[in-house]
Structures are given as C-alpha cells and as structure tokens.
Amino acid sequence: MEIKPGLSALITGGASGIGKGLALALAEKGVFITIVDFSEERGRQVASLVEKINTKFHSKLGFPSAIFVKCDVTNARDLAAAFETHLLTYGGLDICINSAGISSSIPFQKDQTDGTQTWRHTINVNFTAVIDSTRLAIKIMEASKRPGVIINLGSASGLYPVADTIYSGSKGGVVMFSRALRLYKREGIRVNVLCPEFVETEMTLKIDSNMVKLTGGFISMEMVVKGLKEHSNRMTPKAYTPKSPSGPLPPDSGLTQKIF
Hints:
- This protein is of the alpha/beta class.
- Helix content is 38%, strand content 12%.
- A 6-stranded parallel beta sheet has the order 3-2-1-4-5-6, with helices on both faces.
- β5 (148-153), α5 and β6 form a beta-alpha-beta unit.
- It comes from Glycine soja (Wild soybean).
C-alpha cells in the first residue's frame, strides 16, 4: 500500500508514546487520523497537531482531517463506537494501529486483589483489546473490499521473557495472534506486529534502570518511526524489532510481510 493523502487510519493509544509518534508520521503523508485514547486532553492535542500537519495536503475539506474519540479500549462497546465514528467520518478504514498498552507495578503473585485494576487489566488492555480492535478493523476492511493494513504493538518482551511476567505474557500473545492472521493477506489485509525494545515513553520511564541498561538503553521514538519507514516496502522474515545500538536483537525478528 502506498501511503498517500486521503487514506485514513485509526490509532488506539494515539495520545502518547509510539501511537502518537506514528500518528504524526502518518500525518506527514496526508493521512486522515482518528486518535482513540482514554486521555481526552492529550488526545485532543495530538488530533490538533495532526490537523495542522495535514493542512499541507488538505484544505476546505468540509470535515476534520483528524478527530479524537475518548475510549476505554477494554470496553467492547466503547471500542465499537470509536470505529463507527471513524467510519462515519471518513467512509472507510485503510490503516489500524493498536498501540494502547500499560504495565502494572504490582507483581501478579503478590497482588491481594482479583487483579481487576492490576494484572487482569494489563491483559485486557494489552491483549484482549487488540483482539477486539483487530476484529473490528477486519470486518470494515472486508466489507469495503479494499486493501488494509493492521499494525499491532507487541514488544521485544513478547519475543523473549522479562521479569514483568504479565506484560511479557500479554505481548507474547499479541505477537502470536498477529502472526496467525497472516492468512488474511489473501483478502488484501496485511497484519504485522511491531516489537521494539525499550522505547523512551512515559510508561517505560518507570522500568527498572538496570533492566534498561542490560538491553543497551532506551530507543528514541525517531528510531522506531525511521525503522517503519525503511521497512515499509521491504520483505524480511517475521516481527520487526527496532533495537538499541548495543542491545541484543532476538533471533526471531524481522517481518513476515511488508508493513504497508
């Protein structure tokens, strides 16, 4: 798929971190974007930034080139409503990026609750919501009979285990789930999973500094976006893993298919 003005993308977790970085990168190509996030203030700020960037490509549209939809991605009805809003605004869906993600500071085995607000919530945000969002995206893409791209945010910790058990397990689920969807390529729908090491975001700044040092330090957002651009039309084996300069590259890395 050629990324060009007029395509539309829906991005969960688009108000911050990698989701925000990819939203701004797509805006530089003139893509219409729906930012889906629980943080209304930051979500509206990103949507406003996207609209400003998009003025280079679009004027007098009669509709916004970027919108924000407040959504709890763990609520299936909320998520379905976000996709419906996107569809009503842009008439279709070309790109879906599932980047909403969290981690819990309480080890699951020491949690004295049922996990609703801790480890269970982490699984619901990181994995279950990705399944729901991917399902909704595929339904829209199949109905439109147009090529589509789905990018799910995994993690290097989904390729090899780390101390954060629930986070690692949830991201491992995202990796395998995404790879299992490769058969949809026959229908023109490409599903890929991005597995970066520690990207410097609000969430990863809470990670133990010793663990970060073991992998060679943080990766900049610029490296992630640059890597996606460089690999967007390249065929390499399995999940793309941007890595820190001195950090290890997992043996099972690369792409099953080009990203866009």
